[in-house]
Amino acid sequence: MAADGSLGYRQTLRTSTTLRVDPRVILTSQILELNQAELEQAVETELSENPALERIDEGEAGPSSEEILRAVAPRELQPNGECHELWRSLPRDGAEVDWTELAPSADTLWDHLRAQMVQRLPDIPHKLVEYIVGSVNERGYLCCTPEEAALDCHCSLEEAEQTIEQLRLCDPAGVGASDLRECLLLQLRDASTDEERMARAILKNDWECLVQRDVKSIRRRYRVPFEFVEEAFEVIVALNPFPGEGFGVSTRHTAEKSAPATPDLVLERHEQGWIIEVGGPSPLSFRIEKEYERRYKDCKKSNKDERRHVTEFVDRAKTFLDAVSQRRRLMLEIGRYLIEHQSGFVTTGEYRFLKALTRSQVAQDLGAHESTVSRATNGKFVQIATGEVVPFDVFFKPALRVQKLIEEILASENPNSPLSDESISRILQDHGIKVARRTVNKYRDRTRLLSSRRRKSA
């Protein structure tokens, strides 16, 4: 308002900078994250929504590799070690097949818990025990509250709480917890060493410091050396966050667990050298629909609406195919990198040849961003030269490497003189892996491997 009371107007010019992400970059990142099955679904969706994209007929694309093999080398199509179940079921040397070999024998997690609970709580209503055991998910966590169990089973709250408490005393340690923190605390319920007691105190009182790995704050609070806190952290890291894993699955989960993992990357070794195959549809199997391609080239002669329609869908199809191509190129580069830097493991499948590797290191060597490599490998699987399908995590998670090495060591031990955890620790040190005895014990428990005394008696 002016001095004389009249209204005034003033124009000002402001400049600002905003960051807009290219939609093509977003699509490329999304396609990169997909595994083989998800990529197939994405392709089918794009084909149904985009009239400018079409799949090349098999007749136009030429004979498949299977057809070539059938004509040139039919022996290559015979069952081999990769078709494990079929191979086992075939008669050998005229002998009849023992079909009992094919019957699953491992108990499920719920069978394992139910057997323990019946002994622990003979006087508790069977319906309540079944309800609470059935509320444990595949990872070993309890998915119901005492109030819900008491209400649904028409029993007292005290009975429900007692049943849950007994569940948490069952094997495997940590089962029945409601969250990660409680799961880890249950595994340290019988802490016997100073490091384990320290680890329990950190879990109970300093959860935020643990998550942030704030060693200084914990040192100040407990007035202990830095090395002692690190040892307590090592104890916590060695605990099993998913105590239910490693058991067979019940019939209610069979449909989603029975199918083997589909490799997103296949590394095969032949006499001529290595062959790398990327799973999923190839961009060479698709093209721009001929009529749309013709109209796209002559779009200047079209009216405005037709030009906008053709341009939108053709550009969309090209962007989609470019994203699929970039995913394929990066997966091939990662395959070559693994062959070069992890040749011992991808050739033999023996985990003692596995070298320490990080996604950051791979990204730096490939000239890519770490998040790009992470998207390309996270949740995906690779088939190595032995035919074994392993998760990409085996290359990047040291804990998984140690766990697999322990399994290999125990598989080759003398059954009459089983190795102790201390002996296993020394063998791992010979491989350049420094792991404490208690860590070996935790990894062995995680994979349900018996102690040396129990292995000998078995």
Description:
By secondary structure, the chain is mainly α. It folds into four domains: 110-178, Arc Repressor Mutant, subunit A, CATH 1.10.10.1330; 180-247; 265-396, no CATH class; 398-457, Homeodomain-like (Arc Repressor Mutant, subunit A), CATH 1.10.10.60. It contains 25 helices and six strands. The protein has helices at residues 23-33, 36-49, 58-61, 65-72, 84-89, 109-120, 126-134, 146-153, 157-167, 180-187, 194-205, 207-211, 215-222, 226-237, 254-257, 290-297, 304-341, 343-348, 359-366, 370-377, 393-396, 398-411, 421-430, 437-446, 452-457; strands at residues 53-55, 265-270, 273-278, 286-288, 381-383, 389-391. The strands form two sheets. It has a four-stranded mixed beta sheet with strand order 3-2-5-6. Helix 1 (23-33) packs across helix 17 (304-341) and helix 1 (23-33) packs across helix 20. The protein is globular, with a radius of gyration of 30 Å. 23% of the residues are buried. Mean pLDDT is 77; it is low at 75-105, 249-259 and 452-458.
The overall pLDDT average reads 77
- The total tally of domains equals 4
Strand content: 5-15%
Our count of helices gives 25
Helix content: 40-55%
Strand order of the largest sheet: 3-2-5-6
**What coarse outline follows from CA principal-axis ratios?**
globular
| Content-based structural category | mainly alpha
Taking pLDDT < 50 over at least 5 consecutive residues as the criterion, the unreliable ranges are 75-105, 249-259, 452-458
Largest sheet report:
4 strands, mixed
Task: Please count the beta strands (DSSP E, at least 2 residues each).
Answer: 6
- Give the N-to-C terminal Cα separation: 95 Å
Radius of gyration: 30 Å
